[in-house]
Amino acid sequence: MSKESVKNQVITHEFLLTLEDNYHEWLKSSHVKLIDVDSCGEFYISVRLNKLSSLDVKVSKTVEKSAMAIIELRTNGMNWHVKDVPDWKDSCNFDVDFPYYYLQYSNNDCDDSFKFYLSIKCKITWFGFKDDLVFSNLYQNMKQFLLSIECSDVIIIVKNREFPTHKNILASQSPVLKSMLTTTDTKYKKKLLRLRKIEIDVAEELFLFLYTGKVNKANHDYDLAAKLLVVAKNYQIIQLINLCGLILSNNITKENALQLLKLSEGQKTDNVFILQERAAAFIWNNRREVLTLANFKDSSKFSPESLFKIIEKIPD
């Protein structure tokens, strides 16, 4: 299975167990496949009664390779506990409020034993292994042609700047550019192609990615990364959409979380899956602060899908 097919998947599992006077004893669920790819391994849930007011819960995976995911836990219909895990190697730990009022004590007055039936629902939004999310060695053989006139067969014009490029490289990564370069329309048959509504600094990052699989300034410039994501969506450059989504999702704040959730909209596929899911998780975990900001009054402009990402976490 390709790398694309092992990303952006949601796995759910319910662990049903009974606690009976077993303080400090770890109870483990069965192993569950993360996704239908053996190399990704399995995960399992471990639960221990810490005290009558809390549970220690671990969600562990069998492959220690660093991965990115959002892990959500819910016990007996209570609030969801949501963790954005950018470096998941082995276990992700939760301290979960224990609904002690559900305890069923023994009818024997001399017996302090109890029995507690527990349901732990786990939802894992799997983004993939971190090494697979950055395509650092993808285009080593093409790097030599970046902005090189050698073998160039089309000049891209942005504002007043000319970029010597190669049709095969552009067409292989963007179906929109491919259509423009292979059309029978005479205005595109020439060796000059003008791209409108793109700033020069954005174009520089765009061509850097198309030839090297990397970006430079966008790694540290939030506004540039946001503009680059819009261009990547317009030209349907899937790998660049994913990379920009990853960069922006690592820079979520209370002030920009709603903007990033909005920016992740408008895709028929899940190419901005990471950004959308991490923004929604951040908003949920910081809902008291985020939802009182002035810009939340524009929430009506969000798509139903985006709002549902937050609303679905509210207990029944």
TrEMBL record:
It comes from the Eukaryota. Transmembrane segments: none annotated. Pfam families: BTB. Residues 152-219 form the BTB domain. InterPro entries: BTB/POZ_dom (IPR000210), SKP1/BTB/POZ_sf (IPR011333). This is Similar to spop-b: Speckle-type POZ protein B (Xenopus laevis). It comes from Cotesia congregata. The lineage of its organism: Eukaryota, Metazoa, Ecdysozoa, Arthropoda, Hexapoda.
